[in-house]
């Protein structure tokens, strides 16, 4: 693996009047150059906060309390983004230029006051030394690459004249304005209908192949993961519970939570009569984290006296393959057997 982004033991906490919310609590993950890594988990598990931490976009009263976020430009010393001020010059160079981000609500991300062309040209000229005319040419080209028909005319349109799917294509075009090395996409298709979703996923896959950029894709939808991921990071309550290649996650899931998520993917052609599995219970609030394994109240395999007491061991099988669960640890497993006996 040739890491482009390496997050190591990141903790991003929110200091609220009600107490400390450990939204991200010890997350490690790597995005290799030219690969797509999907972060998957139910809402509230810290996926978005992890992504926002990378770009110094954590809102008050949150802040990164520890950990490292290494940004490895080719041929240069790595930079720890966790140490950069959110408004520092270096962070500004990274944000939008080297790493850009697409969000769930494309309409909300575009200004209704300016044309699509104005916003694209501005994004381009912020990062590239081009004249107005050159930037407009690049804008047209980007819209075309984002699959927008009649791209030249669309430059003069306003966001409210476009559908949600078209707006998301515009956002993707803006995100690509400066040829980023990494695109972070936070649930970019969640607000769209199924057909549009599939088209946007195809587009991102094509653009990734064409540009060689890396993608960090955040989603709660394993169907999307199957379509786009090279590697998968499964998160639960602010921690990474399993990591693996996309085939390993789908064909050899090791964590009970991954298994439960897989059981809850709607299957095409499953038939109207077939009930879909769901995970029992809800994700607890991060300020109310259960002791021991955070998944134990919902886990069918939980071992009483072990899972509700001690932190699950982190078992590493390989560079990008690991799981945080007592069931995969020989030492703990034998002591667990004693507890049960
Ligand atoms: Fe379930 Fe225990 Fe594994 Fe947690 S550590 S996932 S509770 S078996
Ligand atoms: Mg989110």
TrEMBL record:
Location in the cell: Cell membrane
GO process terms (BP): peptide transport
SMART domains named in the record: AAA
GO CC terms: plasma membrane
UniProt KW keywords: ATP-binding, Cell inner membrane, Cell membrane, Membrane, Nucleotide-binding, Translocase, Transport
InterPro entries tied to this protein: AAA+_ATPase, ABC_Ni/Peptide_Import, ABC_transporter-like_ATP-bd, ABC_transporter-like_CS, Oligopep_ABC_C, P-loop_NTPase
One MF annotation (Gene Ontology) recorded for this entry: ATP binding
Recorded superkingdom: Bacteria
Span of domain ABC transporter: 5-262
Membrane topology according to the record: Peripheral membrane protein
CDD domains: ABC_NikE_OppD_transporters (cd03257)
Major subcellular location class: membrane
PROSITE patterns in UniProt: ABC_TRANSPORTER_1, ABC_TRANSPORTER_2
Gene3D superfamilies: P-loop containing nucleotide triphosphate hydrolases
Family statement: Belongs to the ABC transporter superfamily.
Annotated protein name in UniProt: ABC transporter ATP-binding protein
Species assigned in the record: Phytoactinopolyspora halotolerans
Source species taxonomy: Bacteria, Bacillati, Actinomycetota, Actinomycetes, Jiangellales
